[in-house]
Amino acid sequence: MPGKSASGRSAPGKSAPGAAPEYPTAAALASALTGGDRRALARAITLIESTRSDHRAEAEELLALLLPRTGKAVRIGVSGAPGVGKSTFIESFGLYLLEQGHRLAVLAVDPSSPLSGGSILGDKTRMQELARDERAFIRPSPTAGTLGGVARRTREAGLACEAAGFDVVLMETVGVGQSETAVADMVDLFVLILPPAGGDELQGIKKGIVELADLILVNKADGDLEPAANRAVAEYLAAVHMLRPSNAGWMTPVLKVSALHRRGLDKVWSEIGRFRATTGERRLAEKRARQARAWMWNEIEEGLVAALRSHPQVASRLNDLEAKVAAGELTPTAAARTILDDFRAR
User: What domains can be seen in the chain, in order of their start residue?
Assistant: First the structure.
């Protein structure tokens, strides 16, 4: 539908029919965003998330204008199984950061429905106190089926938030899954939140995601659960010492926190500061450079798959080849080679 983004909302920079566009150009949108216009930031992220080809071109132009204003924020990823208290922690920690004089952007990724493609987008309603503060910006985005628990354009949305003057950017992911570690490729520090339990539950935690964690938090360390949280901290510490450190010279700390009662948050921020000091500016710059290269190749891979699917000869044979593979009449390897040969013959 003309004037609509992929999400069904009005296209960025567009106004009602007959009205002058609020942000007629990417330059106007960039100027408003860097000038502190929160609506411009929201419009920019809507533009960035759109899948329309004309919006993608406009988004790329916008990001090129914003890029010189980025790079100064602390980028933090937050992950953990559903029910561990991620949203409660982010709100409590976010309010603590605001008290310390920071400006916080939260990119909270909500799971998309596998049937409708829509998402609940409930994080903003779960962080009501934080959402009401003008020094904070919360943007829930659907995963839209993206592997890794983060929306495909989360990286770019984070850059827009940095250009808007937010000096701490938190990226919350959808729970802990096999490809959830994608968040570690776009942040400076990866925080893993775990429940106040150990023993058998410790065995069930995936080794890979624990290895990637730069900071582990045992949440809900209050009331009847506090003794269990103390035991869990000890067990996780023992486990961490048997794993390879995610960063040279850094042993992953394990802290207990109570997001509900807002206890231990000062220690979390202190450890984040210590991590950045230990990492140093040079290694942080190198890490961000590696992430940028990985981001480029990810875009290349996704672009190639999209181009392959839209190729006329491939599209004309794809259903037939898929049916033959499903029926056992053709091996996946042979079908893939046929598709690639058709694509290369363009």
Answer: 1-69 (1.20.5.170), 70-279 (3.40.50.300), 296-344 (no CATH)
